[in-house]
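Q: Protein A?
A:
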Amino acid sequence: MSATKILLVEDEEKLARFVELELNHEGYSVTKAFTGREGYDLAASGEFDLVLLDIMLPELNGMEVLRRLRRVSSVPVIMLTARDEVMDKVAGLDQGAEDYITKPFAIEELLARIRATLRKQSSVTEDGEVLSAMDVSLDLKRHSVTVRNTPVELTKREFDLLHYMLKNKGIVVTREMLLEHVWDYDFDGGTNAVDVYIRFLRAKIDEAFDIKLIHTVRGVGYVIKDELSD
């Protein structure tokens, strides 16, 4: 079995070397990049299983690298940041990062987050590659969504939300279930976040294509039905 390939995008060379050695010791194959532009080019190549991405980088900052990367790849990303600001963390997660860790960090914590992210990714790839309901198709491998063969551009969070609901087609999912399985971190924003993202999905799919895909079950949550009736 080949080693898991990790791309480390970090401009602090001493830290990068330390992390590289620790990851090598754990059996991972590590490639380093020291600028945002180099990191993006490597990450977009499709050669890596996971990316560790610093926020403060020369040429392109980590947030911009992540934004561009999510247009072409769903490779899992863990953000590395010296900032302990809530908005930086939220921005990274909303742009499509799977997790974040704040410097200085214990290597044991980083290793645990890497293992958790890879486990989650493995469970995703074991699912069926294409899920569908009504005229909507979600392709996991290509990380794409189409309605009547027309591409629909979704953010990472919208894609994950639609994916979870399609996996549970015909089953009513509560807001709490969605927060747990889609947000998948200690989210303290209340259940309103779910309603906001459901509105985003409805605007891009239900309203844009005049279909009724996502149904509200009052007092409980939401359900995707593969039928015309409400």
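Q: Protein B?
A:
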Amino acid sequence: MRSLNALGAALLLLPAICFTIFVPPTQADTIFQQVGIASPPVPVGSGARAMGMGGAFIAVADDATAASWNPGGLIQLERPELSIVGAYGVRQSDYTSESRGIETSSSDREASFNYFSAALPFHWHKNMVVSLNYQRLYEFGRSLGYDLSLASPGVALDQHVDYDQSGSIGALGVAGALELTPRLSIGVTVNLWTDELGWDNGWDETYHVTSNGTQAGVPVDIDTRIDEEYDKFRGVNFNVGVLWETPSWGKLGAVVKTPFKASMVHRFEFNETITYGPPLNSTTTSGPFITDEEVTLHMPLSYGLGWSRRFNDLLTVSVDLYRTEWGDYKLVDSQGNEFSPIDGRLKEQSDVDATTHARIGAEYLILLPNKDMALPLRAGIFYDPEPGEGSPRDFYGIAIGGGISKQRYSCDLAYQLRWAKDADAGTLIAEAEADVWQHTVLLSLIYYF
């Protein structure tokens, strides 16, 4: 995507020139690109049970969602099971830019089919488990509109900016776990990122600016629209995890999610109309100018450690630390130019650090008198920073959850609140800060055979 602040600066220059000529991108030109993931960009797992514990699940991982958290935990499954997870999210953002006189808000809502899995435990010399999984990992739904007044010698413009983005990225996971010893297991999930299995993998963006005012006393109206499409996101990576049950300290878990290169098809389209009032009474139309190219998105390495302990039959506590190496995250266009997808700068000019996340969660079981039903209660807190230019954006969160578990099925519900105060708005609005409130509800259903 073209950087919004760079585009805005370019648009300000247009009415200062009586005859504007836009040169379409050629094979020698660079299209300034950025990837605006609207969901938390950390490659976390799924499931209402895990999210109800604040996402501290690396060393718990005892249901089929373990393929997304720590596939080594799959070995704890004793029966075949099917699971499905639905999600509903609301993101409220309040933007303020004192230097530009902007105060605006945006609210985005998204309901999605988040996760599906089928798992089969069996014994062949050793205890083993295989599972087939789908996870919708990254959400791109985001919209924003704001007004801006611009004044300089000979130029007075009122602008309205609309930005809209939609889409998602998911992967099919094929996972397996092996019991090395009664206390130690290892597992691997092969993630196939593709759009050829019945779902779209990519996102669309629209940047639309309408400007009206005067230039050198002449009325002028400018309508600029940029449409972009990133499609056919494809690649392969692995989640490799181990789970060790110590004699006295509880369980220790570790997971590594390997880096990978994802190929994409990128389309960029530019259209613009400039209308001058009397005495010129003229209209200039530029576009459509269209560029198609293949780009590569280099996804970064991430890894985490977890500890959990079941203090008795009712109470489990868990802690996770997780890190993602965002300095290796880059987008390479068809000409070999490398960009930081975080801020849109050339990679050599970008300063994006790794992020380290901390999560603490607990689960308490209420056993009903007949002993064939349990009502779990869960809660968690977490520090969940997002990558940003110069330093990470600090996000914090809390989570609560509950459910019902019987011999043949489990139903779990979780609510998570994630927020940031005075976070850098990045290129959505230049020189702006944002207060963000993100609400997520997950519902999981598991059926045991």
